[in-house]
Amino acid sequence: MEKKMRFGIKSKIIIGYLIVIVCLFIAFIVLNSQISSLQKERNFIIDHDIEVHDLTNRIEKHLLDMETGQRGYIITGEASYLEPYNSAASSWEKDYNALYQLLNNNPNQQEKLEKIKGSIQDWIEAAGEPTIALKKENNTKELQQFFEKDPGRQYMDDIRSQFTSFRNVEKKSTETRATELDEKNQKIKIGLYGLLLFVTLISLAIAIVLSNSIVNTIKEVTQTIKRITASKGELKGRIKVRSNDEIKDLGIATNALLENIEERNWLQTNIAHAVTMYQGIASVDKLAEKFLFTVSEMTGASFGAFYVREENDKGDLFVKQAAFADRKGDAGRESFLIGQGLIGQAALEKRTLVINDVPDTYQLIASGLGDVKPKSIFIVPVLFEDEVIAVIELASLHEFTVLEQELISQVIETFGLTINGVIRRMEIARLLKESQAMTEELQAQSEELQTQSEELQMQSEELRMINEQLEERTKDAEEKSFELEAAKEDLEEKAHQLELNSQYKSEFLANMSHELRTPLNSILILSEMLEENAAKTLSEDEEEYARIIHSSGKDLLALINDILDLSKVESGKLDVLLAEMNMSELPDQIERNFSHVAEQKEVKLKINKAQDVPDIIHTDEKRFQQIVKNLLSNAFKFTESGSVTVSIQQVADHRLTTAMRTVDTDCWLEIAVADTGIGIPKEKHQLIFEAFQQADGATVRKYGGTGLGLSICSEFAKLLGGWISLSSEVGKGSTFTLYLPSLSNGLVDYEKVNFAYEEVAVSVEEAKPEAEITEVDHPVQPVEPSLQDDENVFQDKRVLIVDDDQRNIFALKTALAKQGMTIMTAHNGIECLEMMKNSEPFDLILMDIMMPQMDGYEAMQKIRGELKLVDLPIIALTAKAMKNDREKCLEAGASDYISKPLDLNQLFSVMRVWLVN
């Protein structure tokens, strides 16, 4: 029987679409032919009729040009009017010939066109040429007679009438063609609709045929699946499909799926049965017999043997535990070693063997009628923890199917665990018997041990008492540990509180410094102006009053600076900046700063510098100078007569102590300041180095001072890695000696160096305020400005003073106005910005920092940023002399920085620098 040709759904759909496409293609060809014919007729009407009308109008225009040119020439006599006449006379015949040729298919119109030509020629001969000739001859009389009759008008009227008749005929002809074209267009439209209907009907017919072919087949498959579903698990039914298409493929695949599901169900059922059948079995031989019987029943095996591994001296030996269809006990060998024979090889390689080509010498399967040769052998090892613990061999009269092999393989996967469990239980039972025998022996031994346990109990009692003692000691140690932890937390809390107190103290001192410096600034500036008495309006006593006020103000400023220094040292926030210092200039500096003090006190100043002193040492020059100046200031203050001697030398090696040798330094310097003053009692030597302390109350009353200078010097010396010693005798004088290392390798950790201090004492004496040592944030050497220079620089300069304190504004405004400057004032940053926006430019701004609403920092930032005044000099003035104030002012946009109270000479010097630049 010939194989039925395959005709798939895809092929059916494609053929249906092809038929529809072919019908559409034929319809397109027919429609395109009709549209092309219609287009040709339309083009003929457009091209032919428009050309006829165009040529007719052109001929008529030429005739009109000839008439107009003739009349214009006759009326005016101008030869220019003959140009259109001559041009039209030469052109109308060309257009006439073209029109006549275009009407080849219309003899009637050609005949009318010939009549028009004759009328035109008659007009030219009768009216055109004769009148022009008469005008050229200036024969006015004959022209007048000609126009009285005017035969040319009759010719023109005839020509127009002929043209009108000609155009009407052409118009009717055009309308006739258009009507025929509309009729053809209507026929094409009807044909198009009919063709569309035909194609639609064919498409519907094809769609119905294809859908019925597909849907009917799917319905048959669906009905079959429903019957299988309704059979409640019975999967015997199969789908039958007659068509040879994809539906048939679906039916075949569904049948294969049903067969697979049926096989899986059989497989799962038998596996579950096999697993449940050997539960509760306690011996290996019974387990082996039950397993062989069940597996043979499931697979149809006719012969089988079950071997279990046992360990002996020869190695692992597999011993037969059970057999199926055993004939007189000769079903296979009794035992085998691993690797011996096919069954031993399967155990060695841990893989399943299936042999379908069984040799003739293989043992026969016995039955009641005789012996039969098996067709297939199946050998499968049983694994537990990747070790072979048993091997099963089956023989069958038919070949083992793949499904049967899979069944055995899946059953074997968990069977190893079962075998191992049975073997373990058997081993446990054996061990239990042995343990019972051993228990009896142990009972006899326990009586012997009881005596020993009593002895041990006595020893354990002693150990328990020792353990209790240890526990008590442990508890004591834990209590002490808790106490130490509580003490530690208390110390940490106190340290935190001290840190907060130090911070509050620093903030308090800074704010108090600002509040004190602000009024002090006005006092110093105004008292200095009164002391100068530029207007010569004050008496000598009033000038002395001003000097006393100014001197008192400077004493107060020195006190504020000393308190700030002491606060910084105590809080550990004083920076030490190490750099090179030129020691060769030190004697000149001392001479320059204190020679006038020595002259006023009538005390000799002696300076001795040894040759071995290096020219360059490494230290903080600012703090070093502050220590030396304080020591010299005290020496002059408490020395009424005699001399003050400064000795500078290097400490010799033999004089270096053990502690001094531990410091990493190039050399040690010894700077001694000796005076012949009042001296200090020995019991006061240590006291004077404490803050706000002097030798006694009388000293305070006689010589003044706060008692901060030596305390600050002592702390500065410690920061620089050295110390100050004192040697003094009452009535003979005192010698303060500064020992200082050259710190080329960095600062010294003073706490780790155990210096041996000698007892020190100091004497104090009143000194001039100019010699007091104060910390100046922007030091400027006093300069005696030339009045002429000030007038040249400051004259007519516009200066804006920004300050919220009216006293400072009055003092600065008065001082600056005397220099010829124009002064404007603002009380905060907001007023400053408004004035700069609404008034003429300023040459310089004096900006206070601490102000309400908008402080100096923000105001300077807005001047530089928003107003774009980058080059305008701004000098920051502040009374809050804290760390990093100068850097903060410069970062905010200040050109320079001066701390209050102001020194007018210093202020004028800085202003002169910025105004000149």
Structural notes for this entry:
By secondary structure, the chain is α/β, with parallel strands linked by helices. Helices cover about 60% and strands about 15% of the residues. The chain has 21 helices and 20 strands. The two termini are about 120 Å apart.
What characteristics describe this protein?
six-stranded antiparallel sheet; five-stranded mixed sheet; flat; alpha/beta; 59% helix
Radius of gyration, taken over Cα atoms and rounded to an integer in Å: 67 Å
- Number of beta-strand segments: 20
* Spatial order of strands in the largest sheet: 3-2-1-8-7-4
Helix content: 55-70%
**Structural category:** alpha/beta
Query: How would a textbook summarize the main sheet?
Result: 6 strands, antiparallel
The overall pLDDT average reads 75
Distance between the termini: 120 Å
The quaternary state of the protein chains shown equals single chain
Residue windows where pLDDT falls under 50 for at least 5 positions: 695-705, 751-791
Instruction: Give the overall silhouette.
Output: flat
The number of helical runs is 21
The share of residues in extended strands comes to 5-15%
